[in-house]
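Summary for the steering committee. One of the milestones for this cycle was to obtain a three-dimensional model of the protein with zinc ion bound, which we needed before selecting residues for the alanine scan. The sequence and ligand used are listed below.
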Amino acid sequence: MAGNENARLMCGNCGGILDIDPKKPTVVCSFCGSCFSVSALLDESETLKIARIRRDIELGRQNLEMARIRQAEAIRNDNIRRTEASKKSLISKISIVFAVLSLLMCVSAFTRGALLTGSFAAIQFVLFTVVFLMGKRMASAKTKKLYVFLFTVALILEIPFSLSVATNEAFQTSKNNDVIAWDEIVLGDRIPELDSESGYISKNTRSELMMNVYCVPLKRYYDFVEDCKEMGYTIEPDEDDKSYRADAKDGYILYVRYSVLHDGTVDVNLFAPKTETTSS
Ligand SMILES: [Zn+2]
């Protein structure tokens, strides 16, 4: 059974298995009949073995390298997913805040009769709400693009909205700082002039005057009340230290009230007699 120790090598010519007996210097291929030197074959096989081992080591190294790259990639993807998620939640948070603000502005605008401004706010409300809801469940890259797009549009709408607020008289509080033009008051000859730097007339018709006069020192208010009395507002008076109310002989009714707002505000409310306005 010496054959068991025999190396089994391949025939370089036909690929058949060679049964080598190391005691013999040559071997003849039983398939194709080629003749080989045994010592040369054994040397070659050693060389092949070493090459195979080297190749295996190299393959193992490559596999390790691949695994390392794959792991790095997985970590990177995970990080990307995480930043995307946090970006998404930030957009969601901003959206819900803006949605609530838009709704409030929408209601405020419509109640003031500012339809255009209200419409902008309404569109913004819808967009921000949609973006918020989309942020709750979002899957494909396509919807993600739409999500960011809608959010951007909603934000950009803030510009025309702000412009329409700025230009709409319904929102202008700066009117409060207008100087009251006494000669433009329809019932101006029915009340004494109250000197002031600013004020706001909210009703200016033949039947009613309603205005707030700002920056009035308390002493000037008392003088004003005295002037009103001199003008004939003395019938059925109702007076305390911060308010005065009285009728005039011809039926006009005057209400005056003092508050500390805006460095001293005098609210003046004057009603013309109803019969007079209808007859004349
Ligand atoms: Zn052969």
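Key point for the committee: Residues 11, 13-14, 16, 29, 31-32, 34 surround zinc ion (CB under 6 Å).
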